[in-house]
Amino acid sequence: MALKAWLFASRPKTLSAAVAPVLAGAALALEENRDLPLRYALYALLGAVFIQIATNFINDALDFKRGADTAARLGPLRVTQAGLLSPESVLRAAYVCLGIAALFGIPLILRGGWPLLVIGVASIVAAYAYTGGPYPLAYHGLGELFVLLFFGIVAVGGTYFVLTLRFGLHVFLAGLALGLLAVAILAINNLRDIDGDRASNKRTLAVRIGERGARVEVAIAALLPFALLLFMPRFFLTLAALPVALVLVWKVYASRGAELNRCLAIAGVLQWIFSLLFLASVLI
């Protein structure tokens, strides 16, 4: 039971948010040069995964402590709210995960220098600041900005940079596309929890703009990445994921409450398909 509780707390279904941008960054680098030290992409991938798990742990523990997670929650099980693990043990595990992520960051810093050091420190600080600290981002409508930046532009750009030691506008656009897909997942999550968040004074963007605005946000986040592909014609194969995005938008507009959990699953699948097709565009 303890092992299952830790598995629930890590939220493996959310790990696409960490893996997808690293795949995209590696694809951009491989598109320019096949003879690259890909072990650095692996270090970036592992570091991103452990930061994602740490963020999930911190979110689980601190949302419970702040009263945002209650028995009325519509989403997947939260282990601290359910009493399966103590908030203190979950937070300690989060700090261990952040330490492991920092270890994977060492070879990246040795290769890429101070830009990778800045990215690594900022990512670790942001993982805690998302729901922790005196001004938690998720509680002030800044969660989408955090996700767009760190699970999009920073993750894609950092992976590309550590492989090529360069950056470019096309990398920024790819980061924006992957970040938007991660925003879609967060926006669906916040739409589902809008009533509970409003009651606990968690001022997510969905709470601020209302249900209709949140559904528009999901539609924009799910569809705009395909418009950005117009500026990256080499990756047009990725357009094959567009039907999944259209199904997602339709389902979001047709679903209410706990029904949105199925939309979260579709959004995760969309992120996986988009990033894998992005990589396949180079490998095929």
N-to-C series of helices and strands: HHHHHHHHHHH
Strand content: under 5%
Annotation field: number of helices: 11
Distance between the termini: 43 Å
Count the domains.
1
Radius of gyration: 18 Å
Number of strands: 0
What is the share of helical residues?
over 70%
The coarse overall form would be globular
User: And the CATH topology?
Assistant: Farnesyl Diphosphate Synthase
Q: What about the largest sheet?
A: none
CATH class value: Mainly Alpha
Structural class: mainly alpha
Question: Which architecture does the CATH hierarchy give at level 2?
Answer: Orthogonal Bundle
Low-pLDDT stretches are: none
Quote the average pLDDT: 90
Draw up the topology in text.
Blueprint: H1 2-10, H2 16-32, H3 39-65, H4 87-112, H5 114-129, H6 143-164, H7 169-192, H8 194-199, H9 205-228, H10 242-254, H11 260-283
List keywords for this structure.
284 residues; mainly alpha; Farnesyl Diphosphate Synthase; 11 helices; 0% strand
How would you characterize the overall build of this protein?
This protein has 284 residues and is an all-alpha fold. The protein has a single domain, classed as Farnesyl Diphosphate Synthase. 73% of the residues lie in helices and 0% in strands. It is built from eleven helices and no strands. It has helices spanning 2-10, 16-32, 39-65, 87-112, 114-129, 143-164, 169-192, 194-199, 205-228, 242-254, 260-283. Helix 2 (16-32) runs parallel beside helix 6, helix 6 runs antiparallel to helix 7 (169-192) and helix 7 (169-192) packs antiparallel against helix 11 (260-283). It is globular, with a radius of gyration of 18 Å. It starts with a helix and ends with a helix. The model has no long low-confidence stretch (mean pLDDT 90).
